[in-house]
Every structure is written in structure tokens, then in C-alpha cells.
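A.,

Following up on our hallway conversation. C-alpha cells first:
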């Protein structure tokens, strides 16, 4: 299971498929497994290299107890840590609920 490290917090992710990069972030209280369970990964893996990520506090990513550990800029830096680890400097993005909000924040600093 691959993890990216961001200030001591492990962020779990999977890479699936081939093609242009596409980062996918789930919604609040979900995990990267939702993208698999609802058929998105199977439907798109022939067209995209998908990075499906467990946000901190979700799935197999670390779950820090301090509320400030969940600030939006911190969660965005987790996504950047995944991209950096994979050597990806440009990606499309797909997010649901909380994941969509994270994508807007990512786009504002990228």
C-alpha cells in the first residue's frame, strides 16, 4: 500500500490505469474505496492514470486527533505530497463533496 508522508502524517493512495493524470478525492466520511465500489476506476482506467487518495482522517490514511490538523491548507498539502512523491506536476482533478472543496483549494494555489 503506497503512502505519501506530509509532516509526519501518512496519506494512503492507489495508482490505477494508464493515460493522463487524474487525481480523485472522495467526500466526507468516505474513502478511496468509493471510487472503486461505484465503478469509476474500472470505467476510466483505460483512459487515465488515476491517483485515488484517502484524505487524512479517512480510510487508511493517518487520523490525527488535533482539530487544526484538518485545516484546508493542510489537507491540500497532503494532495501535493502525493503528487510530489509520484513526480507529477500537472493533473486533472475529480472530487466529490469535501473532495470537490479540496480541489478548489488546490486549484487556487497551483
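Then the amino acids I'd put at each of the 110 positions:
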Amino acid at each position: 500500500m503506497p503512502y505519501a508522508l506530509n509532516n509526519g502524517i501518512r496519506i494512503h493512495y492507489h495508482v490505477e490505469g494508464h493515460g493522463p493524470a487524474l487525481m480523485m478525492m472522495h467526500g466526507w466520511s468516505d474513502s478511496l474505496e468509493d471510487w472503486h465500489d461505484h465503478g469509476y476506476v474500472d470505467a476510466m482506467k483505460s483512459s487515465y492514470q488515476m491517483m485515488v487518495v484517502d484524505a487524512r482522517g479517512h480510510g487508511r490514511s493517518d487520523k490525527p486527533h488535533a482539530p487544526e490538523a484538518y485545516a484546508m491548507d493542510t489537507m491540500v498539502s497532503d494532495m501535493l505530497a502525493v503528487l510530489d512523491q509520484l513526480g507529477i506536476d500537472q493533473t486533472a482533478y475529480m472530487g466529490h463533496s469535501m473532495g470537490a472543496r479540496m480541489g478548489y483549494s488546490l486549484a487556487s494555489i497551483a
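The chain has a mean pLDDT of 98. Curious whether your intuition agrees with the design.

B.
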